[in-house]
Amino acid sequence: MGFPYMDGLDLCRQLREISEVLIIILEDRDKRKDIIPGLEIGADDYMTKSFDQMELITHARSVLRRASVQATSSLQSFSQGRLVINFSVREVRLDGTSST
C-alpha cells in the first residue's frame, strides 16, 4: 500500500485500534499477499485494481449492509504525519489538501 510515509496496513491497524469506522482497502497493485493480512487486521473489504466505479459502489453498499450497527466513535479525527482524517465531516486530507 503506497503511502510515502507509512504502510497502509499500519494505518488500517491504527484506525482499528481507535475506531470502528468501516474500512475498504483499495490497492493499486494486485498484491495478493496483502489481502489476508489486511482483512485480518480489521479491514471490512479489500479491492485490487482494476475495478470500475459501480463495482466500488457495490462493495461499499455490501460493507454498509453487513454492518449491524453504524460505527460510532467519540473520536473526531485521526492524524498521522501528513495524513488527517476527520470522521465527523468524513474528510481526508494529505498535506492539507482534501481528497474531495
- The Cα radius of gyration reads 14 Å
Query: How is the largest sheet built, in terms of strand order?
Result: 3-4-5-6
Which regions have little confidence, pLDDT < 50, spanning 5+ residues?
none
Largest sheet: 4 strands, antiparallel
User: CATH superfamily name of one domain?
Assistant: Response regulator
At the fold tier of CATH, the topology name of one domain is: Rossmann fold
What portion of residues belong to β-strands? Answer: 15-25%
Based on secondary structure, the structural category is: alpha+beta
Overall form: globular
Spell out the helices and strands N to C.
Answer: HEHEHEEEE
Distance between the termini: 20 Å
Overall average residue pLDDT: 80
The counted number of beta strands is: 6
Explain this structure.
- A hairpin with a 4-residue loop joins strand 4 (83-86) and strand 5.
- A four-stranded antiparallel beta sheet has the order 3-4-5-6, with no helix packed on it. Strands 1-2 form a two-stranded parallel ribbon.
- It is built from three helices and six strands; from the N terminus they run αβαβαββββ.
- With 100 residues, the chain is of the alpha+beta class.
- Helices cover 31% and strands 22% of the residues.
- The chain has a domain at 8-72: 3-Layer(aba) Sandwich (Rossmann fold).
- The chain is globular and about 30 Å long.
Map the helices and strands.
Blueprint lengths: L7 H11 L5 E4 L7 H6 L4 E4 L4 H14 L10 E4 L2 E4 L4 E4 L2 E2 L2
Parallel strand pairs: 1-2
Antiparallel strand pairs: 3-4, 4-5, 5-6
